[in-house]
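Tip: read the tokens left to right.
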């Protein structure tokens, strides 16, 4: 059931309490489903845990990047990388983000069925290529990189298999495809690293900043830079494209929310594309994103493996056991969210002082909270504003919409939708820095 329908499994367990033991082959899983207890796992007691076995297996792709590194290495890497995500620095990427979104808006055709998930993946791939590598990945290596990403994600279910240590050594077709996928990432990233080193380039893209990062006179090796760049590439591309896809789907179902979004965009941006400076004037756009991530959190489950016994609500999570925290469960819990299944962006404008702080964790929490949260929120709001100014989407009647909870929460069959124009093409932004 964990492989077939993991969300249903977690929902069944959550009905039994806030700390529920789920015995599994080779490991005991504990579902932790109450905000203060979640915070104990992710923050106050985080030194009792390491990343889950599933994410430890992800080292086969991302190496020792921030997503998988532990202990002192994680703390050092986070200190080195944190300044790169300074608010002022990431704001300089806003013009590139809007420019790429305008390209998407330009190529949409009224009434023509498009896979919105594939379109959003293509968009975020272009943005992550530009902001991380200062390269037109979509033009130069789109085939290799996009295919490699799809292959890695398609095989993520293997990480749950107790036979992985054996099957990954066998020369099966899936194993060979997986190795080719990792090789495609390595060729792309190491090639760009060599170019930067040879040129002595100190640009403002994230790869150049990773190469320049120093602590006590020591920087990162090429391997460390590769691991962090691939981690940021995968995280920045996959999670944002999933969040955007579910946002368009939700807006197509809730017409009042869609109309209110359009009213705000028409009022604030009557004849131009958005800029980073406009985001504070687009509160409903931000609320739409938050409500979308509540209902369809891209990171739907977070795992931590106990390295020592950990006391939780009178229970002992023994060393070796895995604590699972599910944003999906927390975000749909009627104890914290009135009408939890409804898409109501206005709840983020009204506020609710009684709601526990940690009932909403789309980016995780504690010392290992997603370092790119500010970047991702800025990007998603700009892309929603840019595209929604000109288009709305209607779900194709033949579309099959089903959850696919792999490393992120994807639509299993894509998202077939028809674009409906709202206004004539707006001029592209001409100000701001890359």
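Filled-in amino acids:
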């Amino acid at each position: 059931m964990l492989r077939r329908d993991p969300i249903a499994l977690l929902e069944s367990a959550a009905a039994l309490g806030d700390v529920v033991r789920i015995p599994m082959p080779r490991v005991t899983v504990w579902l932790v489903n109450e905000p203060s207890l979640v915070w104990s796992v992710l923050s106050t007691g985080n030194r009792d845990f390491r990343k889950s076995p599933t994410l430890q297996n992800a080292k086969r792709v991302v190496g020792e990047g921030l997503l998988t590194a532990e202990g002192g290495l994680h703390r050092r890497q986070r200190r080195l990388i944190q300044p790169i995500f300074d608010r002022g620095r990431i704001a300089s990427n806003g013009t590139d983000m809007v420019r790429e979104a305008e390209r998407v808006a330009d190529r949409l055709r009224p009434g023509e069925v498009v896979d919105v998930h594939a379109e959003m993946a293509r968009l975020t791939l272009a943005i992550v290529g530009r902001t991380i590598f200062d390269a037109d990945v979509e033009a130069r290596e789109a085939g290799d990189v996009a295919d490699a990403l799809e292959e890695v994600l398609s095989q993520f279910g293997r990480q749950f298999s107790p036979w992985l240590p054996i099957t990954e050594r066998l020369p099966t077709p899936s194993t060979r495809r997986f190795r080719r996928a990792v090789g495609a990432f390595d060729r792309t990233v190491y090639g760009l690293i060599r170019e930067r080193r040879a040129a002595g380039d100190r640009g403002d893209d994230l790869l150049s900043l990773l190469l320049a990062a120093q602590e006590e006179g020591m920087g990162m090796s090429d391997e460390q830079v590769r691991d962090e760049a691939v981690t940021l590439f995968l995280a920045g591309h996959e999670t944002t494209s999933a969040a955007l896809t579910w946002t368009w789907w939700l807006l197509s179902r809730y017409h009042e929310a869609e109309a209110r979004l359009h009213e705000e965009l028409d009022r604030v941006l009557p004849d131009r594309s958005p800029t980073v400076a406009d985001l504070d004037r687009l509160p409903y756009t931000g609320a739409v994103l938050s409500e979308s991530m509540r209902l369809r959190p891209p990171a739907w489950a977070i795992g931590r493996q106990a390295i020592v016994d950990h006391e939780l609500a009178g229970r002992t999570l023994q060393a070796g056991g895995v604590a699972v925290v599910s944003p999906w469960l927390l975000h749909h819990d009627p104890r914290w969210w009135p009408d939890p299944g409804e898409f109501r962006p206005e709840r983020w404008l009204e506020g609710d002082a009684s709601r526990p702080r940690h009932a909403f964790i789309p980016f995780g929490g504690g010392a290992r909270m997603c370092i790119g949260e500010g970047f991702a929120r800025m990007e998603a709001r700009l892309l929603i504003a840019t595209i929604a100014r000109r288009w709305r989407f209607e779900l194709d009647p033949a579309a099959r919409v089903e959850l696919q909870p792999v490393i992120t929460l994807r639509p299993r069959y894509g998202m077939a939708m028809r674009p409906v124009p709202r206004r004539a093409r707006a001029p592209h932004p001409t100000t701001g820095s890359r």
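Residues 200 and 208 are 9 Å apart (CA to CA). Residues 429-434 have pLDDT under 50 and may be disordered.
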